[in-house]
Amino acid sequence: MSEIDCDEIDIKIIRALQKDARTPFKEIADKCKVSTETIKNRFKIMRKKGIILGTTILIDPKKLERKHIIIIGIQITQPYSAQVINMVNKIPGICVVTRSMGRYDIETVAIQKDIEEIGTTKDMIGDFPQVKNVDIDILVDNPLLCPKNFEFE
Amino acid sequence: MKLDEIDLTILEILKEDARTSFREIARKLGVSPDTISNRYEKLIEQGVIIGSTVVIDPSKIGYSFIARFGINVKPAYSSQVLEKIIKIPSVIMASKLVGSHDLVAISVIKNFQHLCELRDNILEMPYVDKVEVGMWIKTMKLCPHLFII
Question: What pTM was computed for the model?
Answer without folding.
Answer: 0.83
